[in-house]
Specification:
By secondary structure, the chain is mainly β. It has no helices and eleven strands. The protein has strands spanning about 1-5, 10, 20-25, 30-40, 45-50, 55-60, 65-70, 75-80, 90-100, 110, 115-120. The strands form two sheets. Strands 2, 4, 5, 6, 9, 10 and 11 form a seven-stranded mixed β-sheet that branches. A hairpin with a 4-residue loop joins strand 7 (about 65-70) and strand 8. It is elongated.
């Protein structure tokens, strides 16, 4: 019913920048939250940043001051601007959305993107 399409991953050197994007489409009435998670090799998936419909934002401590999450509401799109990248940021980054569907039975349904790989290495 809902598809999250991610883009923007790639290989960058330490200190570089990347901008990830995620566009949600499908039977969405409204979006409660959109955010980014990541999973590094040998580690569990962790929250990176999330933004709510009201604009409140939470960041992982490890990315505060370096990453910025933003959204384009008319396009149902969320972005993650990643600056001052470190090798420890290397991970598969997954877009996440919690949405209210047009079928109002479902008012907080979670969906995941396919993941986009970010590699920070010299």
């Amino acid at each position: 019913q809902v598809q999250l399409v991610e883009s923007g991953g790639g290989l960058v050197q330490p200190g570089g920048s990347l901008r990830l994007s995620c566009a949600a489409s499908g039977s969405i009435l409204s979006i409660n939250t959109m955010g980014w998670y990541r999973q590094a090799p040998g580690k569990e998936r962790e929250l990176v940043a999330v933004i709510s419909s009201g604009g409140s934002i939470n960041y992982a401590d490890s990315v505060k001051g370096r990453f910025t999450i933003s959204r384009d509401n008319p396009k149902n799109t969320v972005y993650l601007q990643m600056n001052s990248l470190k090798p420890d940021d290397t991970a598969v980054y997954y877009c996440n959305a919690r949405v209210r569907l047009t079928d109002l039975t479902y008012n907080n349904v979670e969906f995941w993107g396919q993941g986009t790989l970010v590699v920070v290495s010299s």
